[in-house]
């Protein structure tokens, strides 16, 4: 699983450098993600972040080298967690194609709920910076992995095969991504993951 570092660097002796008292890189990152989501990345300045943290603008640079560095770390958190979750699902040799796809849907919900601010930010990037362009390329790779899982489930006869797997993938994971619009940070991730997977695979029709 991706991990947000608590330090801004390493001293020659091996001890992490934590920056100014009261803040470390992890806490700065959390505040930055919140500001980027509230104001938009382009509209948020280093000065805005400094004021939010109660620091001078120059003091921010004791924690992070740039605003784009914070964006990169935030996007890497979301993408790294999702990639790791899909790696774990793919490594389950005992799963059938349908079980693998269901597990991927569940894992996506759990990652989204557990890293809601970072995932929300990821879903809002538009490719305006090199960091955003790199993130979008990684998202496309993930979309292809998910579409391949759909294709494998369709080939196995577990799900319908008359719809383009990429379309199915976009519809299912579009539903997952829409959770960022209303999910609260303290939501029950596991129960919600079960609900989304049930709805995606079993639909709304009551089975008598």
CATH fold assignment of the largest domain = Tetracycline Repressor, domain 2
Tell me the β content.
under 5%
The secondary-structure element order is: EEHHHHHHHHH
The CATH architecture of the largest domain comes to Orthogonal Bundle
Helix content: 55-70%
Descriptive overview:
With 208 residues, this protein is mainly α. It has 2 domains: 9-65, Arc Repressor Mutant, subunit A (Orthogonal Bundle), CATH 1.10.10; 74-202, Tetracycline Repressor, domain 2 (Orthogonal Bundle), CATH 1.10.357.10. Helix content is 63%, strand content 2%. It contains 9 helices and 2 strands; from the N terminus they run ββααααααααα. The chain has helices spanning 25-39, 46-53, 57-60, 67-90, 97-114, 116-124, 130-155, 165-177, 189-202; strands at residues 9-10, 16-17. Strands 1-2 form a two-stranded antiparallel ribbon. The longest helix has 26 residues, at 130-155.
